[in-house]
Description:
Elements: H1 2-19, E1 38-49, E2 52-55, E3 60-63, E4 66-68, H2 73-84, E5 88-92, E6 104-110, E7 115-116, H3 117-123, E8 127-129, H4 136-151, E9 163-165, H5 169-173, E10 179-185, E11 188-192, E12 195-199, E13 209-213, H6 217-222, E14 234-243, E15 247-251, E16 257-259
Parallel strand pairs: 3-6, 9-10, 13-15
Antiparallel strand pairs: 1-2, 1-5, 2-3, 4-8, 5-6, 6-7, 10-14, 11-12, 12-13, 14-15, 14-16
Amino acid sequence: MTSFRRLRRSLLAAIGAVAFGVMPDGRAEAAGCADLPVQGDGVVTEVVDARTLRLADGREVRLTGVEPIDEQREAGAAMLRSAALGHRVVLRGADDVPDRYGRQPAYVLLADGAELVQARLLSAGVALVGLGVESAECLQQLRAAEAAGRSAAAGAWVGIDVIKNAANSGDILSRLGRFTVVEGRVNSVREVGSTVYLNFAGRWTRGFAVTISRRMVGGLEAAGLAPKSLTGQRIRVRGWVEKRAGASIAVREAGQIERTGGD
């Protein structure tokens, strides 16, 4: 029975991934991150950590658009070694400007098969979709890969409570300073000064909240996520947990919020 359930989860993940243009092994069938401009290439000589590679010419490459799951970092690094070590990779992205640590952020594709390394990590359940994704098509591809891993109960999705319940502010607060995905229904939307609050509890001073700078509202509206329209909606939000009156996550880009539907 257990084997049948695992097989069923794997089949569902494969069907879901293909429907969104991502093969079960992370390869893209349609437009996505692979359509971003090429920003170089090279042979991987070292896996530094769960999302950092070193190339033969000495460059360090930081996989953009993903956040490693803390409990899966060793598994993520092992997967990177298996997929990329010794292979030539192509780097894609909006530009090749290094971060403050000198690492080049990039979407990494295996040159021999155009497989997106980020998608492989997401579908294996060792990483979550992060921030700073350059295009809507790329974000869709990454979300589809994450959803495939979730459907298959792969990696962290097997037994860890990866998506936190917005109704449990205390549980979320235990992840202070860590990248976290939270899901729940927006109880109310309030604007105080230059900040918009999406409140998930009746007592907004104690419950979990999403904070949005008023400067961000136009971008959210353009993405079909006008804050007022989210009242009563079930959403998923991702980012780093902060503490105000209760637990909170600051939204700095539209890609942090997804409508999930459901009751």
